[in-house]
Structure formats: structure tokens, C-alpha cells
Design brief:
heterotrimer, A alpha+beta (371), B alpha/beta (175), C alpha+beta (130), B: 175 residues, alpha/beta, Beta Polymerase, domain 2, 5-stranded mixed sheet, two-stranded parallel sheet, 5 helices, elongated, C: 130 residues, alpha+beta, Alpha-Beta Plaits, two-stranded antiparallel ribbon, 3 helices
Chain lengths: 371, 175, 130
């Protein structure tokens, strides 16, 4: 198309496209193939969870929170459980803490595998997605055995966890970790070192490092800028202060750096899981005694808790009002800032074909923006 | 740098590494600018709003995070539910734009100086803002949607127990 | 422009070709079924000889998916209300809170989880008596 008179064309990229897990659209102003302006539109997935939770008792609200982020529900459950425990003053056992760390790290591995499928799919490398989604399924098989569900586990519960570990579970997990560690080398050869991916990703979607901390970017966006921030290290929860792990950082600020950070995190997750298997206490109640359904009340207090999800800091604000209902629970996922403040600026002067690539590298998940 | 804050403001430690500060709404911008210059709390991670309908106020918690991301500070302002209006923080934190847009839609709070408060997640919404407590979800659903038929035979269990007890007693007396 | 070919990065993806000679990872459903796991959260079962009709399950269900209804069959003599739960599978989210709060532990979840039907009204489910 001729564009000599500098006329802009407006197109909608989305709501369905390979860039993200969920529905979100970008309104793009194009000059030829180059983007001159971008605006994010959400609202295709608004399910009113925050309003719904005001009408539910604490126990009932627990099954809603995992649905806030589909690819990675467990950090939501952990945040919810920790916020309720903080308000109600419940202390959970060491064993429950280790089981929770195990679930969170397994969820992180599974989420990174799914992300690998999305990221490679956004540039047309279909094989990577087929392999990684199969490997993710092996993790889901273990989840199925542990929690009874594959995607929505509803396992981390205020006061502990809901089920005891099945017989021989830790051995199975150890075997799977050995397998996955070997698979990472295969992913190196077909994805992380693939010249197609390098050519598409290096120097694309460069985040301004100076504004990264001030603007509240989290997760891989920060670590891809060489800034070492991780809630697990900086503001430790559960037993992360007793575990030994590194925070991988890369200096490139681009899509490729963020991909390498994720690869590094998979290695670290495997390392953490091995330590958890070795240190798992064999004794201890997995569940504290809780008041009965309608008698479980929260004091008139408020709290903010944060968990490191596979895409960055996930924060919950929770306020109780002395009744069995939660007065307010507000979710802050990593996507809200990444999807609006960062993405709208990052897309300017990029090529149209890079939109899905950049979106996916930021780890944007629309369900948690509109809750 | 929490010492600076402790010296100048009344700060409560709510949990390990979580602090709370309550301020008047007219001092919001002043205090937050001072906090972001003089202490490590440079990032805004969330604006959380709670509707305390019985006190006729909205409580807004501006959750600030340090540069090291190791401590959180909740700065609470209370504003009237009726004329709810606050100055925008767009000049201090660019990410406040989307958070204020969200709260404007969900609570109807007007952020003075933010001219981007258009639709966020809801489209063509003409009712009262949905996260206000007076918005009754169930009434709205009953008005706008039909429930699927086939579940009318649901029994109230307490009434059923009472009825069966009375029935048993009656048949016993009848004998 | 300098020409520096990335030979390793160009050739290494071809390692994927060797997967052509491996056994496929997928299974041939429905001839071959996946191994069933104990404790899967599938359909409900309710042992009528134990159910006391207390409606705790109805009270805890956040989706209001459970109705307490009377049936023609004999129920537990200790069942004070004479009602048993019926579950609307259009609403159920399989959180298994109802099985957690069941006082006589009669309500349980089984492995079975596949049900196709052409009418949406048909998904009112009486738990199997076992």
C-alpha cells in the first residue's frame, strides 16, 4: 500500500491472537509496517471476581481466586491464603510451608513451559510449543495426583494445604526433574540458540532501564534489564529464605534477554525443587484447625501480600470487616503495569510483526488486569 | 530509610516489612512527593480502594514499594463517598494512570488532573459503578437475566426437618 | 554490513528431525485410555445409606449448584430431612468443598469425568449411590 502522504492506518490486533493467553486487543496506528501509536483495550474477560468475593465467605472465596490467572493459578492461592492467615493470625506448619513451595515451583516450571510455547508460536516456531506443552503435561500429571485437578488445583488453603502427599510422590518428582533438566538442552538447540529466534528477538522490545524501577515493572522485565529483583529473595515468604537459589539477570533489556532469564529461572526452579525434596520434613500437620464455615471471621484490618509468580510480583490487598465476608480483595498482577504503561510505549516504532512477540515476552495475562 | 518516615509521620508496622501511614486527603500529593524524594519508597505498586459504606467513606490505600522491593508502605486516605474526588498522581508515577482509570470506573472516584479516565473494562455501563457496596449484584442479575428452569424442586432442609418431625408426631398421636 | 553466519544456531534446530524416528508421545484415545489416578476430582458419588440430608454441602457451595430434593428411593433412616443433594453440573466447579464438609463422609468424587449431552437442561446430576 502507498503511504507517501503519511496517512495512518488503524487496525485492531486482537482480541484473539498468538501474543497472549487470553483476550486483549491493541489498537494500532500504522504507517506502512511501522507502529506509530498503540492503545491497550481490555474488557473481553471481565468476570467480576472482586465483586463476587464480597458476597462469599472466606472458604467460598478460596475457589474463585485460582481463576484469576489461568496459566498459573497457584500464586493467587498462595496470596489469598497468606493474606487470610495474616489477618486471622494463623501460623502454618513447616511441612505445609515446604509443600507450598514445592507446588509454587512446580507451577512456575509449568508456566514457563507454556510461555515457551507461546513465545515460539508468536514467531512461527511450532515444534517448540508441541514439545514444551507435552513436558508441561507431565508436570500437570503430578499435580493431578497431588491435588486432584490438572489446571485449577485449589490446593493451597488458608491454614495449610488440603491433601497429604501421595505415596512415592517425591520420588516421582525427582525423576521428572532429571528428565526436564535433560530436556532443557533440547530446548536450547531448537529455541534459545535457534538463529531464527535470535534474529527476531535480539534488540527488539528494548525496555528503558532507567525508568524500570520507578515505573514499577516486575519480574523478567526487570531481570532482563540486569536489575536483580525477586520477591522470593527481597521480601521472603514461606521458606524461601532457607533455600539456596540464584536470580538470573541479563543486560540486554530486549526480548532475547527476557527469554534467557526465563530459561535461567527454569534451572533455578529445578534446583529449588531438589532442595525441597531433600529438606521436606516428614512430620507435621499439613492443616491447622480452622473455625467452621460461617464462624470463620476476619478482624477489621487490612494487609498487603506479594508472591513471585512466573511473570513477576503478584500482590493482593485484603481488608476484613469483622464479619465472615471479606470486605475487599484487590488483585495487582504484573500485567496491569506491563500491559498499559509499558506496552503502549514499547510498541511505538516497532514493526507490526513484532507485536505478538513483544507482548508475549512481557508475560501479559489479561484475566488478571480486569479481574 | 524508614527512619525518615518514622521521624516525620506516624507509621504503624502491620507485619514484617509492611508499614501503614494514615494521612488527610488534601496532603496526599505533598506527602507522597516528599516520601518518594526523601525515602526509598519510589514505586507505586497498587491503589487499593475499600468501600466502608457504614462510615460513608472510601479508604484508598496507595501501596508504595522501595527501590530494593523489600518493604511495602500503605498510605491510606479516606474520602467522602458522596463527593469522591482526589488529585491525580500521574506526575509522580506514570503507572497511576491505569490504576486511577480502573478505580474511576469501579467506584466513580474522580481523579482531578487525569484526563484519560475513559472506559476500562466495562463497555456502555450506565448503572452505578459496580464495586460500590450499594450496587446489588443479585438484584441486577435477577432483573437482566433468567435463571435456567428445572431446579424448582429444591427443598428448604430446615423446614423439611420440622415438617417431618410434626408428621411423625402426628402419626404417633393418631395411634 | 559484516557477514557473520550463526552456523550453530542455524543447524541445531535440525536436531528436531530425529524425533521423526521416535515413538509418538500421544495416545490413541479412546482405544487407549490414560491411566486413572486415585483422588481425581470427577463426578460426585453419594452413599445414600450414610447421607443424613444435613445440607452442609448446599451451604458451602459458592456456586449454588446443589439442590436438596426428595426421591422415591429409600434413604438412610437417620436422614432427618429425607432430602439428598442433586448437583447442577452447569454450575459446579469441582472444588470438592462439599465433600470436605460432609459430616458422615458420604459425598465423594470419583474418577469418571466425561459426559456429553446435546441439551443444556440435562446436566442436573444425581450422585451415584456408591
Amino acid at each position: 500500500m502507498e503511504n507517501n502522504d503519511n496517512r495512518l492506518i488503524k487496525i485492531y490486533h486482537g482480541p484473539q491472537h498468538p501474543g497472549i493467553t487470553g483476550n486483549m486487543s491493541m489498537e494500532l496506528d500504522l504507517l506502512g509496517e511501522t507502529i506509530k501509536g498503540a492503545r491497550t483495550h481490555v474488557g473481553y474477560l471481565h468476570r467480576g471476581f472482586e465483586k463476587l468475593i464480597e458476597r462469599r465467605t472466606i472458604i467460598q472465596a478460596f475457589t474463585i481466586v485460582c481463576r484469576i490467572c489461568v496459566p498459573e493459578p497457584d500464586p493467587n492461592e498462595e496470596n489469598f491464603a497468606r493474606a487470610v492467615e495474616g489477618l486471622a493470625g494463623i501460623e502454618i506448619s513447616q511441612r505445609a510451608k515446604y509443600i507450598r513451595v514445592m507446588v509454587l515451583e512446580m507451577a512456575r516450571l509449568a508456566a514457563q513451559m507454556l510461555w515457551m510455547g507461546g513465545q515460539s508460536g508468536s514467531i512461527g516456531l511450532g515444534v517448540v510449543g508441541q514439545w514444551s506443552v507435552y513436558d508441561r503435561d507431565l508436570i500437570l500429571d503430578l499435580f493431578e495426583e497431588l491435588t486432584g485437578g490438572r489446571v485449577y488445583h485449589m490446593y493451597i488453603y488458608p491454614g495449610g494445604v488440603r491433601r497429604e502427599l501421595p505415596n512415592g510422590f517425591l520420588e516421582k518428582l525427582a525423576q521428572l526433574l532429571d528428565y526436564l533438566e535433560g530436556r532443557l538442552l533440547a530446548y536450547d538447540s531448537i529455541f534459545f540458540e535457534n538463529s531464527t529466534f535470535k534474529k527476531r528477538a535480539i534488540g527488539v522490545g528494548v525496555v528503558n532501564r532507567d525508568e524500570a524501577l520507578k515505573n514499577g515493572y516486575v519480574g523478567q522485565v526487570l531481570r532482563g534489564c540486569g536489575i536483580e529483583r525477586d520477591v522470593r529473595r527481597d521480601n521472603p515468604y514461606l521458606v524461601y529464605d532457607k533455600l539456596d537459589f540464584e536470580i538470573p539477570t541479563y543486560e540486554g533489556c530486549d526480548v532475547y534477554s527476557r527469554a534467557l532469564v526465563r530459561r535461567g529461572e527454569m534451572v533455578e526452579s529445578i534446583k529449588i525443587l531438589r532442595q525441597v525434596i531433600a529438606q521436606m520434613p516428614s512430620e507435621g500437620a499439613i492443616m491447622q484447625k480452622l473455625p467452621k464455615h460461617r464462624k470463620f471471621k476476619l478482624p477489621k484490618e487490612d494487609i498487603y501480600v506479594a508472591t513471585e509468580s512466573a511473570r513477576g510480583e503478584f500482590g493482593y490487598y485484603m481488608a476484613g470487616d469483622g464479619s465472615e465476608f471479606i470486605r475487599r480483595m484487590q488483585v495487582k498482577g504484573p500485567s496491569l503495569i506491563h500491559g498499559f504503561t509499558l506496552l503502549e510505549n514499547l510498541l511505538v516504532d516497532e514493526e507490526l510483526s513484532n507485536v505478538a512477540l513483544i507482548m508475549n515476552s512481557l508475560g501479559i495475562c489479561p484475566p488478571e488486569m480486569e479481574r | 530509610m524508614i527512619e525518615f518516615l518514622k521521624k516525620h509521620y506516624e507509621i504503624v508496622e502491620k507485619a514484617p516489612r509492611l508499614y501503614k501511614l494514615q494521612i488527610e486527603s488534601d496532603k496526599l500529593v505533598e506527602i507522597l512527593s516528599s516520601v518518594s524524594i526523601n525515602s526509598n519508597f519510589i514505586t507505586l505498586s497498587q491503589i487499593a480502594c475499600t468501600d466502608w459504606i457504614e462510615d460513608e467513606v472510601f479508604a484508598l490505600n496507595y501501596i508504595l514499594t522501595t527501590k530494593e522491593r523489600d518493604k511495602n508502605l500503605m498510605v491510606e486516605v479516606r474520602i467522602s463517598r458522596v463527593h469522591c474526588s482526589l488529585p491525580t498522581l500521574l506526575n509522580l508515577y506514570p503507572q497511576a494512570q491505569v490504576m486511577e482509570r480502573d478505580l474511576h470506573e469501579m467506584y466513580g472516584i474522580n481523579f482531578r488532573g487525569n484526563d484519560t479516565l475513559y472506559d476500562f473494562a466495562l463497555e456502555n455501563w450506565n448503572e452505578i459503578p459496580p464495586l460500590r457496596r450499594e450496587f446489588d449484584t443479585l438484584a441486577y442479575v435477577n432483573e437482566h437475566f433468567d435463571f435456567r428452569i428445572g431446579r424448582e424442586d429444591n427443598k428448604d432442609v430446615k423446614a423439611e426437618v420440622k415438617r417431618r418431625k410434626a408428621q411423625a408426631k402426628e402419626s404417633k398421636d393418631g395411634k | 554490513m559484516q557477514f557473520s553466519p550463526d552456523i550453530k544456531g542455524t543447524l541445531s534446530p535440525f536436531l528436531a528431525v530425529k524425533k521423526l524416528f521416535e515413538h509418538p508421545k500421544t495416545i490413541c484415545y479412546p482405544e487407549v485410555k490414560k491411566e486413572q489416578i486415585d483422588g481425581y476430582r470427577g463426578f460426585h458419588t453419594n452413599l445414600l445409606a450414610d447421607c443424613i440430608g444435613c445440607a452442609n454441602c448446599q451451604d458451602v457451595c459458592m456456586n449454588e449448584a446443589i439442590d436438596m430434593v426428595t426421591i422415591a428411593k429409600d434413604v438412610n433412616p437417620k436422614n432427618a430431612s429425607g432430602c439428598i443433594p442433586r448437583i447442577d453440573y452447569g454450575r459446579c466447579c469441582w472444588c470438592s468443598l462439599c465433600t470436605d464438609v460432609c459430616p458422615p463422609n458420604s459425598l465423594k468424587l470419583e474418577n469418571e469425568c466425561i459426559w456429553a449431552d446435546d441439551k443444556a437442561d440435562n446436566f442436573l446430576y444425581f450422585p451415584k449411590d456408591k
